[in-house]
Amino acid sequence: MRLLHFLVLLLGLAATQAMAWGNHTLASYRAFERMPEVANASSVTAEPLEAFLRAEENTIEALLASQEAWALANLESYPEQPVELAFHADPARTDEARRQAFLMALRVAPNSRFALYIQPDPRNPVGGANLPNSVVNTLAELPGPAHRFLALKPGEQVSALAVLATATDEPDYGLDVYLWEDSPSTWGKLYGFGAQPFGNPAIAYASQAPFHMAFLHENRLVYLAAPFVKRSFVLLRSQQYTTLSALAFRTGHAYWGWRFAGLSLHYLQNLTQPYHASLAPDHSSLRLLGAQTLAKTGLYGMRNELLVLRANRRMVLQKLQTELLLRDAANRQEGAMEKALHNIERDKSYPDWSDRYLREVVSLQACNAAAPLAQTLVAAMPAALVSDPGLDFGARDTAISLLGELGRSDNPEHARLESAIAELMLNLGAHSRNALRGILRAGDPQ
Ligand SMILES: [Zn+2]
């Protein structure tokens, strides 16, 4: 079916840019620094993953079994965990063997670093030698120019906020890379996730996309034409780390409580990004079908234009959000983005956290925001950046200052775009805090 072919292309292109927000940590510092549960939390003791796993082997065995039962009952298109990957306590094995067994039971990349480190807050610059990227991240490139890693020693005291905010960026450091049957990895063949549903299986970054974006509210036609659109595992990851966090808090491992909470929030925050939650924010499914019909008659222009424009607009949005947040941090006064992230009042307007919250609240809201946001973006940014199908924005990304572009003219749409992005930050902050409240409730030992 031709629509299918088009969706494969569209998703393939989306997958090569699997990062939702430039640096989650930056936004998370602001979202949590005034939340009493985090701001007033005692500092915690950095604990190596091996030590946590050794101490809690039995409770982890029970938890991972219950995660599997939950996933089978609640997730659509969920491929069950191969029985040989199930986690069984074995106090006699080595730390390294236990760590491998744990990561493979979660079905994350077994070479994931899980190093002890923090990403410092750009708002409060600190000295110290930077850790090389490879200590923290299995992907070759530093995730972005705004990233800096500092080492923690086992036993060192660290603030809950730093652990939590740091971990919200970590799933982009190779945890979900090459997990598929057709991946160039040894573990992908063992994991039972099947072939990669979209994106180029040879590119590390693209291979993580089905764990970092989810299209949960598309037109029925789309699902009929391309059932693979449903094969994404964002909700799985959220559930795994959410319940691990609660377990760690309950059993007195606060460091891992905050760290697993941060890991789980990465996936939630991804779904607040309209381009990670909606297949075609700029166009209705009907327009997609129209473009595809033309392509069938040999007129590929419209279809290819839609693909390039989606990619460029998505990257412009992400880059502008990063620049706005860094501008606020550099000015050292509460700017529009920080104000939105600090706004704790909005939290109460949403239902309480539950395991349906990501789908029914976060992702639905992002989908509904997608079309108006795309219109605002197009009206506010220079056509050369967001409406020129001849531009490869990704290739020129770092050379362009979008704030500079905004400053160049006094288009009244600029203010509207800034407030649309602030609104997205408001959602990111509110949903992140609501999820954390749910985790802390579940992690309360009482
Ligand atoms: Zn991500």
Task: Report on the architecture of this protein.
With 446 residues, the protein is an all-alpha fold. It has one domain (2-443). Helices cover 57% and strands 2% of the residues. The protein is built from 23 helices and four strands. The chain has helices spanning 2-15, 24-32, 36-39, 49-55, 57-74, 95-106, 133-136, 160-167, 188-191, 204-207, 209-212, 220-225, 234-250, 254-271, 274-277, 285-296, 301-331, 336-342, 357-380, 383-386, 393-396, 402-408, 413-443, and strands at 44-45, 117-118, 150-151, 157-158. The strands form two sheets. It has a two-stranded antiparallel ribbon. Strands 2-3 form a two-stranded antiparallel ribbon. Helix 2 packs antiparallel against helix 8 (160-167), helix 2 crosses helix 23 (413-443) and helix 8 (160-167) packs across helix 14 (254-271). The model has no long low-confidence stretch (mean pLDDT 89). Bound molecules: zinc ion. The site of zinc ion has 8 residues, from helix 14. Residues 18-20, 171-172, 212, 266, 270 line the site of zinc ion (ZN).
Summarize the structure.
This protein is mainly α. Helix content is 57%, strand content 2%.
Distinct small molecules? zinc ion
How many H/I helices?
Answer: 23
Summed over residues and divided by their number, the pLDDT gives a mean of 89
Percent range for helical residues? 55-70%
The main sheet orders its strands as: 1-4
In terms of DSSP E residues, the strand content is under 5%
List keywords for this structure.
single chain; 446 residues; mainly alpha; two-stranded antiparallel ribbon; two-stranded antiparallel sheet; 23 helices; 2% strand; globular; binds zinc ion
